[in-house]
Specification:
Layout: E1 2-8, E2 11-15, E3 22-27, H1 31-40, H2 45-52, E4 59-62, E5 67-76, E6 84-93, E7 97-102, H3 107-113, H4 125-160, H5 164-196, H6 204-269, H7 284-315
Parallel strand pairs: 3-7
Antiparallel strand pairs: 1-2, 1-3, 4-5, 5-6, 6-7
Helix pairs in contact: 3-4, 4-5, 4-6, 5-6, 6-7
Length: about 325
Amino acid sequence: MVTIRVQGADGITETNKPCAGCWIDARNVDRHDLERLEQDFGIAGELLTDIMDTDEQARIEQEDDYTAIIARLPVWDNNNEIACFTVPLGIILFSDKIVTVCQRSSDALHDVANNRMKGFTLKSHSAFVLNMLGRAAYTFLRALKELNRNSNEIEKALQKSVRNNELVQLLMLQKSLVYFTTSIKSNGLLLEKIQKSPSLRLKEDEQDLLEDVITENIQAMEMANIYSSILTGTMDAFASVISNNLNIVMKRLAIVNIVLMIPTLIYSFYGMNVRLPFHDHIFAVAGILLFSLAASLLGVILLNTEVYFKKRVRKK
């Protein structure tokens, strides 16, 4: 969907026709939208293909008619296998207009289009880029906090019952953090290139804005690394818990097998085709049964006494 926006007295508003100083906002684009962007606005098809590539990294390049910038934005989609991931955002700066192309709708674009940023303007191309990247960094921070909240909820569920579903959810969160870390780092490199690029001539106030955006992007990077380390440690801890629980179950099964082997051994002797003690006695079956039960009970007592003794030794 392609939407044309202009700077008005009440902020950014929509309009029907392109004009000087407008912002062409293309989100959730399909093949028809890409053809329109290529034919009506003169954007190269190769650039649009790169923007549609989900693995495209952030960069800046200078063409004859425009300056193209590709950044990374966070996106939420509960219908996707990984609910939180990142997509490329293309910012094409013409002399008289700005075109943004994104295959999804991100919160950063939504906030800018709905006048949720103070002092946002379309009059300066460099200010537009910096404000957009600053909003992207802010959106990354907000998404990271949401991921951390989801991680805490899953950890609470895992403390009650270790199930595959929660472990898979933690794995998906870890993948999201990997995407976030890579994208934030890529945006950081883009900001460094913008700082040195001659195509964007930054004013003094825009230089200050660039430093603020770089600082916020560094903060998002540090937070992503912290959450990633915490999640990795959590998954390792729960893996140890699962292994320990398995050892406890196997230990209990071994005790049960040992106890059941005692009556099995006794009955095996009396199942041989030779004469044995009490072979012709009328109460032989009952006596053997009672003896087997007593032997099994004695085995349980001995095993429990051994475990109890080990616990007392550890306490001392």
